[in-house]
User: Fold this.
Amino acid sequence: MPADFVYHEIKTSTFTIASWQKVTNPDAGYRVYIEGDGAAFKANGLPSNNPTPHGVFMRDICFKDDAPNVVYLARPCQYVRDNRCKVDYWTTKRFAPEVVEAEYAAVEQITKGEPVTLIGFSGGAQIAGLIAVLHPKLNVQKVITIAGNLDHKAWTDYHKLPALDGSLNLKDYKKAFAQIPQKHFVGQKDKVIPPVLTEKFVAGDRIVAVKSASHAKGWDEIYQEVYEQ
Assistant:
């Protein structure tokens, strides 16, 4: 891990959120990378005991960002011990109001009203979008998603999975979300969040297709383009 990133646990009214932060100019804009759903399920399809991600993609792209203020933000129950964590919060309630509010509170505590770009991977895209539309005073300048799950109802229907009952869905705020500057990177080899789901949700000129990318691999070529957003 780069020496200029410091680990902080952020206390909110609902969850403790793990973060790694590089803040060199607090009065400048921030770039906050929001992790995906992590290890929500085991290989046998049963819910895991700990949703901490096994992969390092989101940390890698975050830690290589040379902007002055860069933050990696985990999701509730990832990397931390928290007695409020129940399996529902990384399965059916992964986008519950209290989850979104915890992520918002963490971003607000870090940025303190300064401009912020939210970069969400997989389910982290849903979190980024919900934060932006539900908290317009947060000063979100742009939302960037990578392999983003923007409409989880369409996603569960596509894969014939149980609905995420108890979760908010960005689809219900689609009109407000459309007003926010945004860019969406999709992997043409992604079988988890296939590009067609993103294409149904946002205008085509806001989508960048990456030929080599599956869900969590093959994204190296977009790093610089993400940094320039």
Summary: The CA atoms of residues 196 and 211 lie 14 Å apart. Helices lie at 57-63, 97-111, 123-134, 152-159, 174-178, 195-199, 223-227. The two ends are 24 Å apart (CA to CA).
